[in-house]
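The records we work with from here on pair a chain with its fold. A complete example follows; check for yourself that the lines match position by position.
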Amino acid sequence: MQYILNAIRRNGVLLIFFFLEFFALFLVFKKNIYHETLFAEASINFTGFVNQKVAAVTHFVRLPESNKELQEENSYLREQLVHLGLDKARTKKFVRTDTVGYKQTYSFIPTEVINNSITQSQNQLTINKGRVDGVEKGDGIMTNNGVVGIVSYAGKNFSRAISLLNKDIKINARIRGNEYFGSLVWDGKDARYVQLLEIPKYIEVKKGDIIETDGKSPVFPEGIMIGTVVSKKIDEVSGELKIQVQLKQNFANLSHAYVVTNLFKEQIQEVEKSDSLIINHVQ
Protein backbone atom coordinates (compact mmCIF):
# COMPACT_ATOMS: atom_id res chain seq x y z
CA MET A 1 0.00 0.00 0.00
CA GLN A 2 2.79 2.37 0.93
CA TYR A 3 4.52 1.52 -2.36
CA ILE A 4 1.42 2.58 -4.32
CA LEU A 5 1.13 5.84 -2.38
CA ASN A 6 4.79 6.63 -3.03
CA ALA A 7 4.31 5.97 -6.74
CA ILE A 8 1.34 8.35 -6.81
CA ARG A 9 3.38 11.05 -5.04
CA ARG A 10 6.27 10.71 -7.49
CA ASN A 11 4.05 10.69 -10.62
CA GLY A 12 1.16 12.82 -9.42
CA VAL A 13 1.70 15.58 -11.97
CA LEU A 14 1.92 13.08 -14.83
CA LEU A 15 -1.24 11.30 -13.71
CA ILE A 16 -3.13 14.59 -13.49
CA PHE A 17 -1.90 15.47 -16.99
CA PHE A 18 -3.18 12.17 -18.45
CA PHE A 19 -6.49 12.57 -16.64
CA LEU A 20 -7.01 16.09 -17.98
CA GLU A 21 -5.93 14.98 -21.48
CA PHE A 22 -8.43 12.12 -21.43
CA PHE A 23 -11.19 14.41 -20.14
CA ALA A 24 -10.45 16.98 -22.85
CA LEU A 25 -10.62 14.32 -25.58
CA PHE A 26 -13.87 13.04 -24.10
CA LEU A 27 -15.41 16.52 -24.33
CA VAL A 28 -14.17 16.98 -27.90
CA PHE A 29 -15.75 13.76 -29.14
CA LYS A 30 -18.89 14.14 -27.04
CA LYS A 31 -19.73 17.74 -27.85
CA ASN A 32 -18.50 17.98 -31.44
CA ILE A 33 -20.69 16.23 -34.03
CA TYR A 34 -17.85 15.91 -36.54
CA HIS A 35 -15.46 14.28 -34.08
CA GLU A 36 -18.24 12.13 -32.66
CA THR A 37 -18.95 10.85 -36.18
CA LEU A 38 -15.27 10.06 -36.71
CA PHE A 39 -15.15 8.20 -33.41
CA ALA A 40 -18.30 6.21 -34.25
CA GLU A 41 -16.87 5.31 -37.67
CA ALA A 42 -13.54 4.19 -36.18
CA SER A 43 -15.31 2.26 -33.43
CA ILE A 44 -17.61 0.30 -35.74
CA ASN A 45 -14.73 -0.44 -38.15
CA PHE A 46 -12.56 -1.81 -35.33
CA THR A 47 -15.30 -3.89 -33.70
CA GLY A 48 -16.48 -5.00 -37.13
CA PHE A 49 -12.99 -6.24 -38.02
CA VAL A 50 -12.69 -8.18 -34.76
CA ASN A 51 -16.21 -9.61 -35.04
CA GLN A 52 -15.58 -10.65 -38.63
CA LYS A 53 -12.56 -12.72 -37.60
CA VAL A 54 -14.56 -14.39 -34.83
CA ALA A 55 -17.50 -14.95 -37.17
CA ALA A 56 -15.22 -16.60 -39.75
CA VAL A 57 -14.34 -19.32 -37.25
CA THR A 58 -17.96 -19.72 -36.14
CA HIS A 59 -19.23 -19.95 -39.72
CA PHE A 60 -16.59 -22.58 -40.54
CA VAL A 61 -17.86 -24.74 -37.69
CA ARG A 62 -21.45 -24.28 -38.94
CA LEU A 63 -20.53 -24.86 -42.60
CA PRO A 64 -22.53 -28.11 -43.09
CA GLU A 65 -25.65 -26.53 -41.59
CA SER A 66 -25.16 -23.35 -43.64
CA ASN A 67 -24.83 -25.37 -46.85
CA LYS A 68 -28.10 -27.13 -46.09
CA GLU A 69 -29.83 -23.76 -45.53
CA LEU A 70 -28.46 -22.43 -48.84
CA GLN A 71 -29.66 -25.53 -50.67
CA GLU A 72 -33.15 -25.05 -49.26
CA GLU A 73 -33.10 -21.38 -50.24
CA ASN A 74 -31.92 -22.17 -53.77
CA SER A 75 -34.74 -24.68 -54.09
CA TYR A 76 -37.24 -22.03 -53.03
CA LEU A 77 -35.77 -19.43 -55.42
CA ARG A 78 -35.91 -21.86 -58.33
CA GLU A 79 -39.62 -22.33 -57.69
CA GLN A 80 -40.09 -18.55 -57.75
CA LEU A 81 -38.17 -18.25 -61.02
CA VAL A 82 -40.48 -20.79 -62.61
CA HIS A 83 -43.48 -18.68 -61.62
CA LEU A 84 -41.83 -15.44 -62.77
CA GLY A 85 -40.75 -16.80 -66.13
CA LEU A 86 -37.26 -17.01 -67.60
CA ASP A 87 -37.19 -13.48 -69.06
CA LYS A 88 -37.96 -11.84 -65.70
CA ALA A 89 -35.58 -14.20 -63.93
CA ARG A 90 -32.66 -12.79 -65.90
CA THR A 91 -33.15 -9.26 -64.57
CA LYS A 92 -31.23 -8.15 -61.49
CA LYS A 93 -34.12 -6.34 -59.85
CA PHE A 94 -37.81 -7.18 -59.66
CA VAL A 95 -40.67 -4.68 -59.75
CA ARG A 96 -43.81 -5.62 -57.84
CA THR A 97 -47.11 -3.82 -57.44
CA ASP A 98 -49.04 -4.17 -54.18
CA THR A 99 -52.79 -3.98 -53.64
CA VAL A 100 -52.69 -0.22 -52.99
CA GLY A 101 -51.42 0.39 -56.50
CA TYR A 102 -47.89 1.80 -56.11
CA LYS A 103 -44.73 0.13 -57.31
CA GLN A 104 -41.72 -0.69 -55.14
CA THR A 105 -38.42 -1.92 -56.51
CA TYR A 106 -36.11 -3.70 -54.10
CA SER A 107 -32.50 -4.77 -54.38
CA PHE A 108 -31.01 -7.46 -52.15
CA ILE A 109 -27.42 -7.26 -50.91
CA PRO A 110 -26.02 -10.52 -49.47
CA THR A 111 -24.24 -10.08 -46.14
CA GLU A 112 -22.96 -11.97 -43.12
CA VAL A 113 -24.10 -11.35 -39.56
CA ILE A 114 -20.80 -11.12 -37.67
CA ASN A 115 -22.19 -10.15 -34.26
CA ASN A 116 -25.64 -10.77 -32.81
CA SER A 117 -27.25 -10.69 -29.37
CA ILE A 118 -30.54 -12.23 -28.22
CA THR A 119 -30.39 -11.98 -24.43
CA GLN A 120 -30.80 -8.20 -24.00
CA SER A 121 -34.00 -6.16 -24.06
CA GLN A 122 -32.58 -4.02 -26.88
CA ASN A 123 -30.69 -6.48 -29.05
CA GLN A 124 -28.63 -5.35 -32.03
CA LEU A 125 -26.53 -7.01 -34.69
CA THR A 126 -23.54 -6.17 -36.90
CA ILE A 127 -23.19 -7.03 -40.60
CA ASN A 128 -20.09 -6.95 -42.80
CA LYS A 129 -21.50 -4.59 -45.43
CA GLY A 130 -21.59 -0.78 -45.36
CA ARG A 131 -22.00 2.35 -47.45
CA VAL A 132 -19.49 1.22 -50.09
CA ASP A 133 -21.76 -1.77 -50.72
CA GLY A 134 -24.89 0.37 -51.01
CA VAL A 135 -26.21 -0.08 -47.46
CA GLU A 136 -28.08 2.91 -45.99
CA LYS A 137 -29.62 3.73 -42.65
CA GLY A 138 -33.23 2.54 -42.63
CA ASP A 139 -32.67 -0.46 -44.92
CA GLY A 140 -34.25 -3.74 -43.87
CA ILE A 141 -32.41 -6.97 -43.11
CA MET A 142 -33.96 -10.37 -43.80
CA THR A 143 -33.12 -14.00 -44.44
CA ASN A 144 -34.92 -16.68 -46.41
CA ASN A 145 -36.68 -17.41 -43.10
CA GLY A 146 -38.03 -13.91 -42.54
CA VAL A 147 -37.43 -10.42 -41.16
CA VAL A 148 -34.33 -9.84 -39.02
CA GLY A 149 -34.05 -6.11 -38.34
CA ILE A 150 -33.49 -2.57 -39.64
CA VAL A 151 -30.15 -0.80 -40.23
CA SER A 152 -29.59 1.91 -37.60
CA TYR A 153 -26.07 2.99 -38.60
CA ALA A 154 -24.25 2.41 -41.89
CA GLY A 155 -20.47 2.65 -41.64
CA LYS A 156 -18.10 2.51 -44.57
CA ASN A 157 -17.58 -1.27 -44.49
CA PHE A 158 -19.75 -2.46 -41.58
CA SER A 159 -23.22 -1.59 -40.32
CA ARG A 160 -25.23 -1.90 -37.13
CA ALA A 161 -28.89 -2.86 -37.07
CA ILE A 162 -31.74 -2.95 -34.57
CA SER A 163 -32.77 -6.57 -34.22
CA LEU A 164 -36.39 -7.67 -34.45
CA LEU A 165 -35.72 -8.85 -30.88
CA ASN A 166 -35.57 -5.27 -29.63
CA LYS A 167 -38.30 -3.65 -27.53
CA ASP A 168 -37.83 -0.37 -29.43
CA ILE A 169 -38.67 -1.76 -32.86
CA LYS A 170 -42.13 -2.02 -34.40
CA ILE A 171 -42.97 -3.20 -37.93
CA ASN A 172 -46.17 -3.63 -39.90
CA ALA A 173 -47.39 -7.20 -40.31
CA ARG A 174 -50.56 -8.98 -41.36
CA ILE A 175 -52.26 -12.35 -41.20
CA ARG A 176 -51.87 -14.12 -44.53
CA GLY A 177 -55.18 -14.62 -46.25
CA ASN A 178 -56.98 -11.50 -45.05
CA GLU A 179 -56.49 -7.74 -45.16
CA TYR A 180 -56.09 -7.16 -41.41
CA PHE A 181 -52.73 -5.85 -40.30
CA GLY A 182 -51.21 -4.63 -37.06
CA SER A 183 -47.92 -3.86 -35.31
CA LEU A 184 -45.36 -6.56 -34.62
CA VAL A 185 -43.40 -6.04 -31.39
CA TRP A 186 -41.23 -8.03 -28.98
CA ASP A 187 -41.98 -8.17 -25.26
CA GLY A 188 -38.37 -8.94 -24.31
CA LYS A 189 -39.12 -12.36 -22.81
CA ASP A 190 -38.40 -15.16 -25.27
CA ALA A 191 -36.20 -14.92 -28.39
CA ARG A 192 -38.41 -17.44 -30.17
CA TYR A 193 -41.60 -15.37 -30.08
CA VAL A 194 -42.90 -11.92 -31.02
CA GLN A 195 -46.37 -10.41 -30.61
CA LEU A 196 -48.81 -9.05 -33.18
CA LEU A 197 -50.99 -6.26 -31.76
CA GLU A 198 -53.84 -4.00 -32.90
CA ILE A 199 -55.88 -6.79 -34.50
CA PRO A 200 -59.65 -6.45 -33.80
CA LYS A 201 -60.94 -9.09 -31.41
CA TYR A 202 -63.68 -10.25 -33.81
CA ILE A 203 -61.12 -11.36 -36.44
CA GLU A 204 -60.81 -15.13 -36.79
CA VAL A 205 -57.25 -16.19 -36.04
CA LYS A 206 -56.19 -19.83 -35.87
CA LYS A 207 -53.09 -21.58 -34.57
CA GLY A 208 -50.72 -22.11 -37.48
CA ASP A 209 -51.82 -19.02 -39.43
CA ILE A 210 -48.88 -17.35 -41.21
CA ILE A 211 -47.82 -13.83 -40.23
CA GLU A 212 -46.07 -11.84 -42.96
CA THR A 213 -45.05 -8.33 -43.98
CA ASP A 214 -47.86 -6.27 -45.47
CA GLY A 215 -45.84 -4.08 -47.88
CA LYS A 216 -47.32 -0.83 -46.55
CA SER A 217 -43.93 0.52 -45.45
CA PRO A 218 -40.96 1.22 -47.73
CA VAL A 219 -38.66 -1.07 -45.70
CA PHE A 220 -39.73 -4.65 -46.55
CA PRO A 221 -41.47 -6.12 -49.60
CA GLU A 222 -44.95 -7.53 -49.24
CA GLY A 223 -45.45 -11.17 -48.29
CA ILE A 224 -42.20 -11.91 -46.45
CA MET A 225 -42.99 -14.62 -43.91
CA ILE A 226 -42.22 -13.79 -40.28
CA GLY A 227 -43.67 -16.69 -38.34
CA THR A 228 -46.80 -18.61 -37.36
CA VAL A 229 -49.53 -18.07 -34.77
CA VAL A 230 -49.22 -20.20 -31.63
CA SER A 231 -51.83 -18.54 -29.40
CA LYS A 232 -54.05 -15.49 -28.95
CA LYS A 233 -55.84 -13.60 -26.20
CA ILE A 234 -57.73 -10.34 -25.73
CA ASP A 235 -55.63 -7.53 -24.28
CA GLU A 236 -57.34 -6.21 -21.13
CA VAL A 237 -56.22 -2.63 -21.80
CA SER A 238 -56.85 -2.18 -25.53
CA GLY A 239 -59.63 -4.74 -25.95
CA GLU A 240 -57.86 -6.00 -29.11
CA LEU A 241 -56.17 -9.30 -29.86
CA LYS A 242 -52.65 -10.00 -28.68
CA ILE A 243 -51.29 -12.75 -30.91
CA GLN A 244 -48.25 -14.82 -29.97
CA VAL A 245 -46.12 -15.51 -33.06
CA GLN A 246 -43.36 -18.10 -33.27
CA LEU A 247 -40.55 -16.81 -35.47
CA LYS A 248 -39.49 -18.92 -38.42
CA GLN A 249 -35.94 -17.54 -38.19
CA ASN A 250 -33.89 -18.91 -35.32
CA PHE A 251 -31.96 -15.85 -34.11
CA ALA A 252 -29.60 -18.01 -32.06
CA ASN A 253 -27.80 -19.28 -35.18
CA LEU A 254 -28.19 -16.25 -37.46
CA SER A 255 -25.28 -16.12 -39.93
CA HIS A 256 -26.25 -15.12 -43.49
CA ALA A 257 -28.78 -12.45 -44.46
CA TYR A 258 -29.79 -9.89 -47.10
CA VAL A 259 -29.93 -6.11 -46.84
CA VAL A 260 -33.17 -5.00 -48.48
CA THR A 261 -32.95 -1.62 -50.22
CA ASN A 262 -36.03 0.10 -51.59
CA LEU A 263 -34.78 2.12 -54.57
CA PHE A 264 -37.80 4.45 -54.30
CA LYS A 265 -37.45 4.93 -50.53
CA GLU A 266 -36.37 8.59 -50.71
CA GLN A 267 -39.20 9.47 -53.08
CA ILE A 268 -41.76 7.83 -50.80
CA GLN A 269 -40.37 9.61 -47.72
CA GLU A 270 -40.41 12.94 -49.59
CA VAL A 271 -44.08 12.47 -50.47
CA GLU A 272 -44.97 11.49 -46.90
CA LYS A 273 -43.26 14.64 -45.59
CA SER A 274 -45.98 16.66 -47.28
CA ASP A 275 -48.45 15.38 -44.67
CA SER A 276 -46.68 17.21 -41.84
CA LEU A 277 -46.21 20.30 -44.00
CA ILE A 278 -49.95 20.47 -44.70
CA ILE A 279 -50.84 19.95 -41.04
CA ASN A 280 -48.43 22.68 -39.92
CA HIS A 281 -49.83 25.05 -42.56
CA VAL A 282 -53.40 24.41 -41.41
CA GLN A 283 -52.45 25.01 -37.78
Observations:
- The helical segments are 2-10, 12-31, 33-61, 63-84, 86-89, 265-282.
- Residues 86-102, 277-283 have pLDDT under 50 and may be disordered.
- The CA atoms of residues 212 and 238 lie 23 Å apart.
